[in-house]
Specification:
- This protein has 11 helices and no strands.
- It is mainly α and about 260 residues long.
- It has a single domain, classed as Serine Threonine Protein Phosphatase 5, Tetratricopeptide repeat (Alpha Horseshoe).
- Helix 1 runs parallel beside helix 7, helix 3 packs antiparallel against helix 4 and helix 4 runs antiparallel to helix 5.
- The longest helix is centred in the last third of the chain and has 22 residues.
- It is globular.
């Protein structure tokens, strides 16, 4: 699943008193995706237990934990799987404190646990840990996962209410979204995030540029990000792309 949808769900789970979301990318995970995630998690768990000192094995289990937790059908299950991912990531970053991917996946799994425990004070505190870990990931390896740390920080600041309720910030959201696009313009999620934000902020000139770039890169993205592993992402991206086009046409006509 895309990081954007993950962030929307985490924020919409009641971690703050009020959350403004734009409603794009709301997709229902299929049984096929869930079955694949379960299989990947079990294999990653087996490989990690065979070599707990392997960074690659830790990375695979951390990612698999997040992806399976995200597809959980109840919050008890989500919390249990997320805790496994957090446990692995804590050991990982204790051994390699400067691992950007380690802090990145720690943030992702912390977010799933926060969603499972919301609404609660504990969940609220976890969100601040999520922000801290994403920022560490950005400092250490901002290019990881197609500028994932920049992308997720942008989403956090875009979706969350502002001070004093939470950490939301239009300025920070724009800064991180633009950085993600600059670092990995070929990745659809980065362009989609920026376009959705520009639409919400009523920035037609900037939106026109982003939409032009998105449309130009879309065919190549379909080729470069293909295969079974990318199917959940495309399920999300296609819905959001269509919604963007419809909203742009509604408010600005043929062009923003």
């Amino acid at each position: 699943m895309s990081l954007k949808l993950f962030m929307q769900r985490m924020l919409a789970a009641g971690l703050w008193l009020a959350v403004a979301t734009n409603g794009m990318g709301q997709t229902t995970p299929s049984r096929i995706f869930s079955a694949r995630a379960q299989t990947a998690f079990e294999l990653a768990q087996k490989n990690f237990l065979a070599d707990t000192n392997s960074t690659n094995a830790a990375s695979q289990l951390a990612r698999a934990s997040f992806e399976l937790a995200d597809l959980a059908t109840n919050e008890t299950q989500r919390a249990a799987i997320a805790r496994r991912g957090i446990e692995v990531c804590h050991a990982w970053v204790a051994h390699e404190p400067k691992s950007g991917p380690g802090h990145y996946y720690l943030a992702m799994n912390l977010g799933e646990l926060a969603q499972a425990e919301a609404p609660s004070i504990a969940a609220y505190k976890l969100v601040h840990e999520v922000e801290r870990e994403f920022k560490l990931a950005a400092e250490l390896d901002v290019r990881f996962d197609y500028a994932g740390p920049a992308r997720t920080l942008g989403e956090l600041y875009f979706q969350a209410p502002g001070w004093p309720l939470s950490v939301g910030s239009k300025h920070k959201a724009r800064e991180w979204f633009e950085r993600a696009v600059a670092l990995a313009p070929e990745y659809p999620d980065n362009q989609l995030n920026l376009a959705e934000a520009q639409l919400k902020w009523h920035q037609p000139e900037a939106l026109a540029v982003t939409m032009k770039n998105l449309m130009a890169r879309w065919p190549a993205a379909r080729t470069n990000f293909s295969g079974e592993v990318w199917e959940p992402s495309w399920q999300d991206w296609n819905v959001r792309y269509a919604a963007l086009q419809a909203e742009v046409k509604k408010f600005y006509g043929a062009k923003p």
